[in-house]
Amino acid sequence: LKPDGLFLNHGITSETGWQRTPLTHFMNRYIFPDGELARISTVIEAMENAGFETLDVECLRRHYALTLRKWIANLERHREQAIHHSSEVTYRLWRLYMTGCAYYFDEGDIGLHQVLVGHRHQVQPVPLCRDDIYTNHKERQGPTFLT
Questions:
Q1: Which of 113, 82, 111, 100 is nearest to 26 (CA)?
Q2: pLDDT digit string (tens) for 11-21?
Q3: How far apart (Å, rounded) are the C-alpha atoms in residues 42 and 12?
Q4: Is 48 inside any structural domain?
Q5: Rounded-to-integer distance, Cα 135 and Cα 124, Å
Q6: Between 120 and which of 39, 53, 68, 142 could a Cys-Cys bridge form, CB atoms 3.0 to 4.6 Å apart?
């Protein structure tokens, strides 16, 4: 990472950390071999231990539940095409996986976090607050960046 570079980690997290359950067994066997979900605190701690400063953390859990539902609807709409390019088994596995994930995101059992980090002790080219990110640039006099 360049000295003034930024690193955005976009990842699924678990409130309890990785545990062996029937769900995780299913995921490891059929969807993500050797996959694990970490607690958001574990992710941030690892980044900080690697010499990064945490600049922003955002939870997108509720957004991802909605995204998954759109993906499921799209997959169902294109069922025949999906099966043609893979198989009935693959179609059913992914439909089941995404449906289960949407439920667990809704319940808060799993989350989706974006963590923005930069090198510690470096001036970072990021806005001072999120208002600068969300405000339409035409309405602003100019960005308020830390430079």
A1: 100
A2: 999 988 777 77
A3: 12
A4: yes
A5: 20
A6: 53
- Are residues 13 and 36 in contact, defined by beta-carbon separation less than 8 angstroms? no
In angstroms, the CA 110 to CA 90 distance is 23
The reported pLDDT for the residue numbered 136 is 59
> Per-residue confidence at 130, pLDDT binned at 50, 70, 90?
confident
Average pLDDT, the chain: 88
Contact 115, 44 (CB under 8 A): yes
Residue at 136 is within a domain = no
Whether 89 maps to a domain, the answer reads: yes
Considering 27, 44, 82, 101, which one is annotated as catalytic? Answer: 101
Range of the domain at 22: 7-120
Q: Using one digit for the tens of pLDDT, what is the confidence trace for 77-98?
A: 999 999 999 999 999 999 999 9
Cβ-based neighbours of 122, under 8 Å, separated by 6 or more: 3, 4, 53
Identify whether 126 is part of a domain: no
| pLDDT confidence of residue 147 | 40
Q: Domain count of the chain?
A: 1
